[in-house]
Please model this.
Amino acid sequence: MEQAWQVVLGAAAHADRLTDAAAAAAYALGDAGALRRVADTDRDAVIRWHPQGGWSLALPPADPRHPLIDLYLPICSATIGRPITVGHLGQSLDGFIATHAGESQYVTGEENIKHLHRMRALCDAVVVGAGTVAADDPQLTTRRVSGPSPVRVILDPGRRLADHYRVFNDEAANTLYVCGKSVMREGETHFGRASVVAVDDEGDQLDVAAVLRVLRERGCHRIFVEGGGVTVSMFLEANALDRLQIAIAPLLIGDGRPAIRLAPRLALSDCHRPRYRVFRMGADVLFDCDLTSDAGDSDGQGGPSITRVI
Model:
């Protein structure tokens, strides 16, 4: 799968430049692992660029590289003028991301963990909440795959965290510590090694639109909201996610910390039923939902079969 991953990394790197060129193009994978432009009819073409729509696959479905490239092309298609924000949660069959005690490593399996590292490599910023940092002390880098580590963004509305966690002390990647204006300390610029930014807050919630503005102003047009449930739900409730990925593991927790927490709807007709794709990752099943679209007249009982195995 390394060859397919090199195609994905190349697609992500080329997108902004191709937008400026405003021309359709086809690409194959060169000998050194870099993309090379080829004729649209070239049998070696693996992906095609469309100025108005981004990347598409040129490979037949039976090609073993097809599933992995297919999964990531929507993220690779994002540009400065067409940004994307993607949320992800890994949950049990009964809808929990951790036990009541906070144990969450690991609900999902190895393949989904590797997927998280790939998503980080494709995005300019990875966002997590204070609860995730407190529970897991994550590094939020791309240790398991090739590709750059993103800016690490820690959302801590009420400043519950101390500065001893790794994201505030190591030099593996830049870190942005985002807290509420109501708890901002005068003259403060850093928290450990992390840069401090304050945005509007209300209670234990940050202004999500303000967070996104801060990141866009810093050149982050691919944003990955990795967790946890409170943080992803905050972005979802604010209609700030373009895609939502839910990885479901064959695990029953019984009770614990729920994945998505939204204001309840009284009728199913009021619920959003997005278009989705399904991928299998080892023992886990990933639903990749496009929140910018709707399934329309789909009855929700069918959908794609699980044929894309990563």
User: Anything to note?
Assistant: Confidence is low (pLDDT under 50) at residues 297-302.
